[in-house]
Amino acid sequence: MSAIVLDANYAKTSDVLTLPESFSGINPHNVYLYVKSYQAGIRSNTATVKNRSEVRGGGKKPFAQKGGGRARAGSTRSPVWVGGGQVFGPSNNRNYNQKINKKQKKLALKCAIEGHATNGTLFIVDSLEVSSGKTKDAKVIFNTLGQRDVLLVKTLIDENTFLAFRNIEKSYLVEENELNAFLAATYRSVVMEKAVYENLVKEA
Q1: Which domains does the chain possess?
Q2: Which of 62, 85, 104, 142 could form a disulfide with 52 if both were Cys (CB 3.0 to 4.6 A apart)?
Q3: What is the per-residue pLDDT across 10-41, written as a single tens digit (0 to 9) for each?
Q4: How many other CB atoms are there within 10 angstroms of residue 160's CB atom?
């Protein structure tokens, strides 16, 4: 249960950083709860239909109660009419947010990070900066590691580094404060700066 240390050229070294004991033995159910809460929080919640009180018109009785041979009707807004209101349809007034404790958030992130460390897909590098801002220079890290589906975690993202990584498919560059269990669990590999790792371990 250790992280692999990379050199300045993103090549693997013989050095490893062992995760503290607090990262082991965590129930993976915490990851499930956090991911469920995270996805519920980003739900667009745009599905909505009009009920009979919101449909325009229909104030006048469409035809006489008796004598026409038809079923009685009081309004064209009735759900049985074409163009009428919808019964029990979706509403954007619904709140999909699901509460999760701060402690569970931390446990979920630790569990996700521990999973990468166990699988040998957690990498630590001194700096992820790409000063040239060119995508071909940023691709060096993927070619060297032989990884494609990678989450990159940087202390603070500068403009050139952002421009270098933004067009690379199946990779995502985030700042330290954006790191969460959902992102860590989604990507197959995690590469983070040493300062981010040290802060993560220190908070544990």
Answers
A1: 2-43+97-203 (3.40.1370.10), 46-95 (no CATH)
A2: 85
A3: 888 888 888 998 898 999 999 999 999 999 99
A4: 16
